[in-house]
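tool=predict chain=A
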Amino acid sequence: MPGEFYIEGKKEKVDLTEIKNLISQIQTSVTQVQNNVTTVVTKSEGLAPVTGSAMGDWETAESDVVTIGSHNARYKVHSLVISISNLVGTAITVRLYMLVNGIECKVYEQAFDATADPPGLWVINGTVGIHEGLRATLQSNDAADNGQSVDFDYMLEVM
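tool=predict ok
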């Protein structure tokens, strides 16, 4: 009969049902692992790059350039580039803010010189995990920068 065979010389029947059940369990486990791997690979795909620009009175007051992410949304920020190519100030200050236990805190600050530093500022160059909005601001020390456009570009990945 199918699933049975005889050992030569002993004339006994050996049942292969247990072996067939183990093989079936292994196949089910392999399928589950394949599905889990597919889910992880699909989930880790990056989002489309985001580009835009902001206008502000940069010398009058610190003004928002862009907010990345939102409340309780988990992301990996891989890069944030801000262009100061339209500015002429010698002290262009970029700041980043994020909620920490419900209170917005400054988490980064650096000053650049639009006449000496590169026109593209790589503010984030590496992976940073966020779960709140990350707000980027800019302030200049030159009134000629008021009303100028500041471009930005960033890359995100959903966690």
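The chain is about 15% helix and 45% strand. The two ends are 54 Å apart (CA to CA).
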